[in-house]
Amino acid sequence: MGQDLRLYLHNVDKALAEKHYEAHLEKPFFPELLAYITSTPIIAAVLEGVDAGVFEKAADDRAHLDALRGPRRGVHGRGGQGMKTASRVLGSAFFCAGFEVQDAPRYGAERRGAPIFAFVRAAREPINERGIIRCPDLVIVADDSLPGVPAAGVLAGMDEHSVLLINTHEDAQLWRERLNLSGPLLVLPAPADSVDRAALPYIGTACAAAAARLSGAIELDCLMTALRQELAVLPDPVVADNLAAAQRAWDALAPYQGRVKQREEPGARDYAPPAWVDLPLDSARRAVPAIHAAVTSVEVRTGLWRTMRPVIDYERCNRCWWVCSTFCPDGAITVDAQGYPQIDYDHCKGCMVCVAQCPPHAIEAISEQQAQAAEGAEP
Questions:
Q1: Residue spans of beta strands (DSSP E) within 245-321
Q2: Percent of the chain with pLDDT over 70
Q3: Parallel/antiparallel/unpaired status of strands 100-106 and 115-123
Q4: For 296-343, what is each residue's pLDDT tens digit?
Q5: Alpha helices in the chain (DSSP H)
Q6: Which of 20, 41, 68, 340 is the one with CA 20 to 30 A from 112?
Q7: What's the distance, Cα to Cα, between the start and end of the chain in Å?
Q8: What are the backbone angles phi and psi of residue 29, rounded to the nearest 5°?
Q9: Hey, is 48 helix, strand or coil?
Q10: For every residue of 171-206, which 3-state class applies, written as one string?
Q11: Residue 69: pLDDT over 80
């Protein structure tokens, strides 16, 4: 099947230009467009040959197939847990094993405790896809509070083929019932005594090791090499602790070696065009929050991100409210009639800037779990 691409100079007359641009006939710029396109010769590109008309469609089909080759992994966690490092380590380990790789994090506010996710693609052929992963083969959740946060989108795109791995101290069957999942769900044991979820020790390293083990395509040597390269700037004792954490996660998931399977690649013509969805028109207040309001949106409870809660000890507070309220990056601290600062926990993300800046050290950081337990115990 021969196809030739030919380029040649061509003078466009007014009649041809009017026919070609007739969709813009009623536009005010139409006369200027005609004058411009007929003012000088153009370079025309012509594809000649059998089935030349379907060349572009075939190219699109190959791009779809190339994008689907190779396993796809998503890693969900919170800022400060090392999910970006985990994706880099996993990507480097796949590369060491001979794969083409993409790894990238995705997050909004660069703040400790905010939900983030990172993804990794690996394939034996070049990867042409550059978007986020829509249908993951493996999803790892480093923080078991995230499935309860809708904005985290932990289960987005999962189907019966996808494997879900949760870092938790709870039973897998409990999570399966809680999330109403029919697909495979595994548990990576997490320490039950950690106060701050965002400070779980070496959790990013453990997640990378778990993904490598479940893939069945990465040897332990490649994983450890990737870890040493990524953590080379850290002190030797810290690197040693990370390697030990990776070994523990690798050993814990030994029964599930190779559990993640690459899904069968659909053909290019298996794709259906996207269906249009009619959405209700939101009010301007909800769709575009007023820029003169507090830094955070009034309509969205961003306090769900929080893993640590700042609590004010009013006996020590000297009412220098302009310090904490000014340094709060979310405008979540207001002042009452007596001059005492008040924290809006619906929008406080738990960055702990106020704790660090309070002159009399009247603001204490406690875990969100501890705070919620205390609230539940109150009569």
A1: 308-312
A2: 71
A3: antiparallel
A4: 456 677 788 788 899 999 999 999 988 898 888 888 899 998 989 999
A5: 14-20, 30-37, 55-68, 83-96, 172-179, 203-215, 220-230, 236-252, 284-287, 321-327, 353-357, 368-377
A6: 340
A7: 81
A8: -90, 5
A9: strand
A10: CHHHHHHHHCCCCCEEEEECCCCCCCHHHCCCHHHH
A11: no
Closest CA to 375 of 328, 304, 309, 300: 309
- pLDDT, one tens digit per residue, over 9-22 is 667 788 888 887 88
- 3-class DSSP assignment, residue 121: strand
- What single-letter DSSP state applies at residue 317? -
The pLDDT, as a whole number, for residue 146 is 79
Tokens representing 208?
């990378």
Rg, the chain, Cα only: 28
For 138-168, how does the pLDDT look when each residue is reduced to its tens digit (9 = 90+)?
Answer: 888 888 777 877 767 778 878 888 888 888 8
8 Å CB contact between 321 and 335: yes
Query: What's the whole-model pTM score?
Result: 0.55
User: What whole-number distance in Å separates Cα of residue 116 and Cα of residue 188?
Assistant: 19
Residue type for position 118: A
Measured CA distances, 6 to 3, 38, 253, 295 (Å) = 10, 21, 58, 56
- CB count in 10 Å sphere of residue 69: 19
Nearest one of 270, 86, 71, 274 to 161, comparing CA atoms: 71
Per DSSP, what are the bridge partners of residue 10? 42
The correct answer on CATH 3.40.920.10 for the domain covering 67-268 is yes
According to CATH, what is the number of the domain 291-377?
A: 3.30.70.20
Contact 333, 344 (CB under 8 A): yes
Looking at residue 313, the DSSP 8-state letter turns out to be -
The residues that bridge with 119 in the sheet, in sequence order, are 74, 104
**For residue 50, which amino acid is it?**
V
Parallel, antiparallel, or unpaired: how do β-strands 308-312 and 72-78 relate? Answer: unpaired
What's the token pair of residue 88? Answer: 């880099």
The domain ranges of the chain are 3-50, 67-268, 291-377
What type of residue sits at position 166? I
